[in-house]
User: What shape does this take?
Amino acid sequence: MLTEDPYAALAEWYDLEHDGVTEDIHFIAQQIASLGAPRARVLEIGSGTGRIAAGLALAGYEVVGVEPSSAMRARCLERLAALPERVARRVTILDDDARLLALPPDAGFDAALFGLDTFAHLLTAAERDVALRAAHGRMYEGGTLLIDLDPVGSRRLAESVGRDWLQGAWQDERTGRTLRHTLRATSVHDGVVTIHNNLEVTMPDGTHSQASADLRLALIARGGVESTIHAAGFSQTTVYGDYEGREAIPDAPRLIFVATR
Assistant: This one.
């Protein structure tokens, strides 16, 4: 059974695994810079532990992050507390849902972002439609929508139910603890794959502990995303296949959709 907040078990280790990823931040910052807004306001939907939000704040942008997981928001606040105050104050993190966006009535944005597969956490076409329409209603005319998806990873898992895949291994230099993360799809139903995450932690003295959580991701085809973008009132401009800005081809490692309000 899925827990109410699966990230409660994963949040402590999320940054150790993901903080080395910076290519997406540079790519997103470049896309926002092309808008020409001197102090662009960015809405990040599914802001997690604030990795992208902090990176954009360091680049000079103001960011409002929407994150429903209390465990992930707590980690984000720790991250912001470690930043210079002048940078941290550019970031606001809210307990909110992509489908609701219960923001102040006058809150408007130059860009809206679904980073690093966040869009796939919206499990039905109806949820994705509602979320994009909500984002559209909060954006300024001419603003940019960015959706970053990993179509290969989720499809690979869905095609290998029951098989363990090593996500990677990392060492925490502060504590000496080592993390080993494996994934296993346990079911595929109605276009949604359920993924069991197993985290094995090794302490410096050699003792072990484990944490696990199940996450669900929608298996979304490129055409489905494009039609939802259009139905929500956006005009799609480009689909990139990686953070280097190459054109998306079949089996591209990423699909990065860029659209204009």
About this structure: The two ends are 39 Å apart (CA to CA). The domain at 153-218 is CATH 2.20.130 (S-adenosyl-L-methionine-dependent methyltransferases). Helices lie at 7-18, 23-33, 51-58, 70-81, 85-88, 125-138, 151-158, 222-231. DSSP finds eight helices and eleven strands in the chain.
